[in-house]
């Protein structure tokens, strides 16, 4: 009989934000404030970045 397992995984994306500022330095500082700007709405998956966290998968599923 098959069971369901919770498998944690991570991957990377690359995106851009459009930021209004008086200098590049200010724009970078504003972009780093994710509460104000949030995450980019335009983004793409970075090929080859998908990984399963085997250690955590084993830990959270050890009682299964």
Describe the structure in your own words:
- This protein is an alpha+beta fold and 64 residues long.
- It has one domain (9-60).
- 30% of the residues lie in helices and 19% in strands.
- The chain has 3 helices and 4 strands, in the order E-E-H-H-E-E-H.
- The chain has helices at residues 24-31, 34-37, 54-60; strands at 9-10, 13-16, 42-45, 51-52.
- The strands form 2 sheets. Strands 1-4 form a two-stranded antiparallel sheet. The chain has a two-stranded antiparallel sheet with strand order 2-3.
- The relative contact order is 0.32.
Mean pLDDT: 94
Number of beta strands: 4
Low-confidence residue ranges: none
Radius of gyration: 18 Å
Helix content, binned percent: 25-40%
Percent strand: 15-25%
The helix/strand series, from N terminus to C terminus, equals EEHHEEH
Question: How are the strands of the biggest sheet laid out side by side?
Answer: 1-4
Structural class: alpha+beta
Choose one word for the global shape: elongated
Number of helices: 3
Oligomer: single chain
Described by strand count, sense and barrel closure, the largest sheet is:
2 strands, antiparallel
